[in-house]
Design brief:
167 residues; alpha+beta; PH-domain like; 4-stranded antiparallel beta sheet
């Protein structure tokens, strides 16, 4: 959990940290396979005896590489850059690779925590956690969370501990 430790303040302890569920990248992986299958098929059926065959091969490989970067590498980096953290003081969502954004809610301001998981998401053990707060931003939604119900329980336990410490 080194990726989470650097986001902690000096008076905080890490309670829970996770990335988005791996299924977030499933569509991108299918697109990656499709891109290279199409590129391979074009290269396979391209007549090599034609004088411009090598140039077309390089163009097809270049387009496939650009499509791979756009439809697989960029989403992979976005997935890798999205972190959900619960500390002894706050709940924190950080996302982005080049342009980073963060949103945190102090545990003392949390009013309600709910989760939602469709049948398919329950089978894959993922879902969405919504955190309602008394702040001006109001709602923090964490999508593609592994084990959303357990994260909800962790948040409530951290809130109870924070409340005990403040008394």
């Amino acid at each position: 959990m080194k990726y989470a430790q650097r986001h902690l303040a000096s008076d905080e302890e890490l309670v829970y940290a996770t990335r988005q569920h791996w299924t977030r990248l499933f569509t991108e992986f299918v697109l990656l396979l499709l891109i290279w299958l199409v590129a391979g098929a074009i290269l396979w059926f391209l007549p090599s005896a034609v004088s411009f065959g090598h140039i077309v091969g390089y163009v097809v490989a270049g387009i496939a590489t650009l499509a791979t970067v756009r439809f697989w590498l960029i989403p992979l980096l976005a997935w890798r850059g999205t972190v959900y953290i619960v500390t002894t003081k706050r709940i924190y969502r950080r996302s982005g690779f080049l342009t980073k954004t963060g949103h945190s809610i102090p545990l003392s301001r949390v009013n309600d925590v709910s989760f939602e998981a469709t049948l398919w998401e329950r089978i894959l053990r993922e879902g969405t956690v919504s955190i309602q707060s008394a702040s001006e931003h109001g709602l923090l939604t964490l999508k593609h969370v592994p084990e959303p119900e357990s994260l909800k329980d962790v948040i409530y336990q951290a809130m109870d501990e924070e409340e005990r410490r403040c008394q």
